[in-house]
Write a structure and sequence with these properties.
The chain is of the alpha+beta class and 375 residues long. It contains 9 helices and 15 strands. 31% of the residues lie in helices and 26% in strands. The longest helix is centred in the N-terminal third of the chain and has 20 residues, at 60-79. The termini are far apart.
């Protein structure tokens, strides 16, 4: 099975900084650590995959090799310690060592892949759960239409670089070694522009804001990314364009907090209803449901409503809704209400632990504590 791209594994762009790579790895390591996912056989594999990607991308030398040659380049690099692939070794070092013996490969003008771009898309929870089609405006660099990316004025053409003879590379003699490097005159293009295009000024690309339609799948969560292939910056010298990574940011919700497929909310309940029991009209993303509160419900009690959560892009199963009871103390009482409440309190106190078992147990614990510390 082919290895996944290390940047895709960590969910970062190819231009990500070392801090961004480290931050993403830590998030994934915590999410997929086997100790936190017991019973999930796939978590261990994802954890190892993230660790392998991080070990490469955190090392500047390994990252540079990977960016240029991919997984095969790393295999050849590792093979040097005790057996290597002749093909991979030659791909990496043939350009340098081949010149020593006059066998170096002739290289033409270099092409450059366009840079990847990132875009932060903010969504309300409802839109993230149901999915949506969103139009976004992305500032980028596109191929100049006037010169078709050549950089030369319309009606003219770039001419072959006289420094490198159109190869895009020049050879530098350093003693016994003959080393090829990018031509300083044409910057590897193999051509130079005598009369530059008036629109792009010889760069072959111009700044433009592109309007794109992004299809957001149902169930996306905060931090998820959508890749739009080829929608990044245009390449140079005929190189392919980069990709656009749309990162989802879900706005805080007034009622619900989301944890993967599950939702949580806090439900205020009056003292009387908590003591006597009753029914509460509880909102969900699918509409209202009735929650039955049993008599004697305490503050902090959590009710689980199965199937009232959400789905995710990775799992079509519906999560649950967890409703936490918060018994609300009445405020701004009238004199009559205060009198009634005091009579009620006196009646409850007269019943002792019969009516307040937790309070009675707590007082007994306090008494034993002070008995132990008394001289």
């Amino acid at each position: 099975m082919a290895k996944r791209d290390y940047y895709d594994v960590l969910g970062v762009s190819r231009t990500a900084s070392a801090d961004e790579i480290k931050k993403s790895y830590r998030r994934l390591a915590m999410k997929h650590h086997p100790d936190r996912n017991k019973g999930d056989g796939s978590a261990g594999g994802k954890f190892k995959e993230a660790k392998e990607a991080y070990e490469v991308l955190k090392d500047p030398d390994k990252r540079a090799t990977y960016d240029r040659f991919g997984h095969d380049g790393l295999s050849a690099r590792a093979g040097g310690a005790g057996g290597f692939s002749a093909e991979g070794f030659g791909d990496i070092f043939g350009d340098v060592f081949g010149d020593i013996f006059g066998g170096g490969r002739q290289r033409g003008s270099q092409v450059f892949r366009g840079a990847d771009l990132g875009y932060e898309l903010r969504l309300d929870l409802e839109k993230a759960v149901s999915g949506d089609s969103v139009t976004i405006d992305v500032p980028t660099q596109v191929t100049c239409e006037t010169c078709s990316g050549s950089g030369a004025k319309k009606g003219t053409e770039p001419v072959k670089c006289t420094t490198c003879g159109g190869a895009g590379q020049v050879r530098m003699q350093q003693g016994f070694f003959s080393i090829q490097q990018t031509c300083p005159a044409c910057k590897g293009a193999g051509t130079v522009i005598g009369d530059p295009c008036g629109d792009c000024h010889g760069r072959g690309r111009v700044h433009k804001t592109k309007t794109l339609s992004v299809k957001v799948p149902a169930g996306v969560d905060d931090g998820d990314r959508i890749r739009l292939s080829g929608e990044g910056e245009a390449g140079r010298n005929g190189g392919p364009p980069g990709d656009l990574y749309v990162e989802i940011r879900v706005n805080p919700h007034k009622l619900f907090k989301r944890d993967g497929p599950d939702l949580a909310c806090e439900v205020p309940v009056s003292i009387a209803k908590a003591a006597l029991g009753g029914e509460i009209d509880l909102p969900t993303l699918d509409g209202h449901v009735t929650l039955k509160v049993p008599p004697g419900t305490q503050s902090g009690k959590v009710f689980r409503l199965r199937g009232k959560g959400v789905t995710t892009v990775r799992d079509a199963r519906q999560g649950d809704l967890f409703a936490k009871v918060a018994v609300e103390t009445p405020v701004n009482l009238t004199a009559e209400q205060r009198e009634l409440l005091q009579r009620f309190e006196d009646s409850v106190q007269a019943g002792g632990e019969k009516h307040s078992p937790r309070a009675g147990g707590w007082l007994e614990t306090v008494k034993r504590f002070f008995d132990r510390i008394s001289p």
